[in-house]
Amino acid sequence: MKNKTKIFTLIIAYFCLMIFDSCSVSDDGIDCGNINAPPFYDFKSLIISPNQNEISNGEKLELTIQLDELEYLTFVQPKFSFGLLNKAYGCTPLPPGYDGPKFPIATIEVSSNQDFNSDNLANSLLNKFITLRYFDELIPLDQANIDQLNFIEADHSTKGLILETTPDSLNIEHTFTIKITKSNGEIIENSVSGVVWN
Asked: Above 80 in pLDDT, residue 166?
């Protein structure tokens, strides 16, 4: 009788371990084995496109940013597993970078190589004149939070920066530089030339 009780206890303990093992998760809180893509993305460069190079009276310049040279960072493996049972996953495959940036954008800075007016000379920060297009909202760039600065999806996603003012002097070619600083201190920047107000 004692042997039967011991065997029964061992069987119950084994099944409890299998249940625990099958429910173990990764550091990201999701365990879909190898069926999911890497959860984080990172980028090494920017593509900047103006809505037009010649800006007429009453029109606004919009600079569109797209992340480039993307790389995706792999899963952290589950911390603990007995390997008693193959996991039964109840989730569907997710796209690469679904958990957002590994190093979120901390700041976006916009400048021009030409004077805008007597108070905003060449290479000075123009952020106070910029609104950020965030879905259907227009948000002053200086007031945008970290979620609004970052890209929900790295691939096929763009962000618009709208310049809400015009320079005092017309018919002068501007080169705009956008500088992005990530949370790890890395700086990514690019420029677009040939923008003229007439």
From this structure: yes
